Amino acid sequence: MANFRVAVPTPLRSYTGGAAQVSVAVTAPAPRLADVFAALDAAYPGIRFRMVDEAGRVRPHVQVFVDTMVERDPAAVLAPGSAIMIVGALSGG
Amino acid sequence: MARAALPRPAPPRRVRLLIATRKGLWTLTSDATRRTWKLAGPQFLGHIVHHAVADPRDGKTILAAARTGHLGPTIFRSTDRGRTWKEAATPPKFAADSGRVVDHTFWLTPGHPSQPGVWFAGTSPQGLFRSADDGATWEGVAGFNAHPQRKAWCGGDQDGTPDGPKLHSILIDPRDARHMYVGMSSGGVFESVDGGGDWRPLNAGVRADFQPNPDIEYGHDPHCVRFAGGNPDRLYQQNHCGLFRLDRPATRWQDIGTGMPKSVGYVGFPMVTHPHDADTAWILPMDGSDVWPRVAPGGKPAAYRTRDGGKTWKRQADGMPKSQAWWTVKRQAMTADAFPTVGVYFGTTAGEIWGCRDEGRTWKRLVAHLPHIYAVEVG
Asked: Do B354 and B328 meet the contact criterion of CB atoms below 8 Å apart?
């Protein structure tokens, strides 16, 4: 099991009780970004669909960083201990 | 199909407008005199609220279709008349393998009185969704979303309105829960007689001037379709190409735009029907000439009312600005209350609510300085 820290932007903090940083546990042996989204949704129901559409794509005005790199592919494999940062893209607001 | 006559509802004791805007939800309330109004809000500040609708069946449930600039679409639900809200556990979304993605939920309609808890939602791009639990969870109506003709009916994104093609004007026959209509921009008007299991186009007689063949079966652009008050066998339609009326069981719409002044035209977005009189309806024309400015023609806004089923239209502008008022009013942003002498209300994209309590004779600005108004509903 791996734990990931996730920075949550203000538009999504209604789901996390106002928390700007949360930690989620992923049990998959080779955790992917999609697993983090699923773990977030399990902990904070409804949050995933606001940032990932029904086709599994990160929404156009949501930006995701893994450590310091933009990562929009939910299938991307995460290194242990990676920090996830979700932000509202400037294009959306 | 045999259907019972409709009872006339008791007069309301108060009126509340649900004002959905590009930046949140407000309410505007008055007692039966409709002389003084109280504005409350915002709720969901910063959310793009396309539609907020109260459930006339229980008098306490309200659904609001919302998204934000960044986040995906959802539905908020209140079961205490708007005091508290919860988000839908499963908002409207297409099947994962469909390749389609809901951009926003555009239209909400409570279901038939015999089906408490049932709601329908129309989305952009065009999709039809149903909830059986007061909006907590939603499922696609497969008879529409997976209909083999759906793609042909809807066309592509370039065939829709500037902020996305839409399914709207979901009408449930008050005498028969299985009998439904929807409107699509683009696509046209469609009818189901089996609760949404199958659909057929219902556009004969409606012009489609933007098509190579203007007398096509589908591909039209209805802006708003409403039942006539007290007579769901009559439909009124404000279309991209004019004004039309359909009296069932006929299947050919009648052009009712010929009585409009040529200088004003017959293009607009809303269609409002009188709750007690099937011959009376209101429109708010928008300039459809040239590059389709979609503002009050000549900067001189006016409602037009028919009292004879669309044969003639009377200009109603008393109280409105006489010049330099370049209003745009969207298709869900005009409505009527159910008092014996009906009040009519509309909201502009510049954030003003205008209303009357005398069936359109004298208008008054009720509220200013709200955000861009998308929808105004009584509830």
From this structure: no
Q: Is the pLDDT of residue B2 over 50?
A: no
What is the side-by-side strand order in the sheet with B180-185?
B166-172, B180-185, B188-192, B200-201
Residue labelled with tokens 């242990």: A80
- How far is the C-alpha of B142 from the C-alpha of B122, rounded, in Å? 13
Within 13 Å, how many C-alpha atoms sit on residue B314's CB side?
A: 12
Quick one: CA dihedral B255, B260, B264, B269, positive or negative?
A: negative
Q: Do B72 and A59 touch (CB under 8 A)?
A: yes
The answer to whether B144 touches B200, Cβ cutoff 8 Å, is: no
Percent of chain B residues topping a pLDDT of 70: 98
On the question of pLDDT at B98 being above 50, the answer is yes
Q: Is B232 left (phi over 0), alpha (psi -120 to 50) or beta?
A: alpha
Interface probe, candidates A15, A53, A62, chain B, greatest B C-beta count within 10 A:
A53
- Judged against a pLDDT cut of 60, whether residue B1 lies above it is answered with no
Q: Please give the full DSSP string across chain A, using - where no structure is assigned.
A: -EEEEEE--GGGTTTTTT-SEEEEEE-SSS-BHHHHHHHHHHHSTTHHHHHB-TTSPBPTTEEEEETTEE---TTPBPPTTPEEEEEE-GGG-
Cα–Cα distance, B14 to B30 (Å, whole number): 6
Given CB atoms, is B70 within the 8 Å cutoff of chain A?
A: yes
Which residue has better confidence, B210 or B176? Answer: B176
- B72 vs A contacts (CB less than 8 Å): 49-53, 59
Contact state of A54 with B91 under an 8 Å Cβ cutoff: no
Tokens 């607009």 map to which residue?
B268
C-alpha B301, offset from chain centre: 20
Q: Is A62 on the interface with B (CB under 8 A)?
A: yes
The residue of chain A with its CA nearest to that of B98 is A55
Q: Measured between alpha carbons, how far is B310 from B308 in angstroms, rounded to an integer?
A: 6
What residues of chain B lie within 8 A of the CB of A48, using their CB?
none
Residue A92 confidence (pLDDT) above 90 = no
Q: For B267-302, give one letter per residue: b (16+ CB within 10 A) or e.
A: bbbbbbbbbbbbbbbbbbbbbbeeeeebbbbeebbb
Do B70 and A9 make contact, defined as CB atoms within 8 angstroms?
yes
The pTM (predicted TM-score) of the whole model is 0.94
Give the integer Cα–Cα distance in Å for B138 and B159. Answer: 26
Q: Is B136 on the interface with A (CB under 8 A)?
A: no
ipTM of the complex: 0.86
